[in-house]
Write a structure and sequence with these properties.
The protein is about 75% helix and about 0% strand. The chain has about 130 residues and is mainly alpha-helical. The chain has a single domain, classed as Globin-like (Orthogonal Bundle), CATH 1.10.490. Helix 3 crosses helix 8 and helix 7 crosses helix 8. The longest helix is centred in the C-terminal third of the chain and has 19 residues. The relative contact order is 0.19.
């Protein structure tokens, strides 16, 4: 996780706290919207990822957070809602793109191209950010 945070800080100019928050928001979104098997592969390949996703979810991570999302607790909105969350956290559109590209590059290195391709393919609109 330290490598991912460092690379995102370098690519986007964010400080460590905001980089961690942005990663958590994206991971929480992917858990909610993406294909379960590939998301599990990504989360396993990034030690500490679940903790950041849980923090972004206000501590409602894991299975209970997913159940809450299925029952309407997630708010919906897809990629546009993700962008809104990231902008609300203080990121510019350019920083959002830098964070997304770097995060998916690390994901490809750690979890593999097949897993990341399936994730991008399963979430409408995500491809424009990665």
């Amino acid at each position: 996780m330290d490598e991912l945070i460092s690379r995102i800080m370098t690519a986007s100019g964010l400080d460590e706290g905001l980089a961690r928050k942005a990663i958590g928001i994206i991971l929480a979104f992917l858990q909610k919207e993406g294909p379960a098997a590939e998301i599990e592969q990504l989360m396993s390949a990034l030690p500490g990822a679940q903790e950041l996703a849980n923090a972004a979810n206000g501590g409602k991570g894991g299975l209970m957070g997913m159940v809450g999302g299925l029952m309407g607790g997630g708010g919906g909105g897809g990629v546009m809602a993700l962008g809104g969350q990231l902008m609300g956290a203080g990121l510019s559109m350019g920083q959002i793109q830098s964070v997304s590209k770097e995060m998916f590059a690390v994901g490809r290195e750690k979890a593999g191209e097949d897993a990341m391709g399936a994730i991008v393919g399963a979430i409408p609109g995500l491809g424009q950010f990665v």
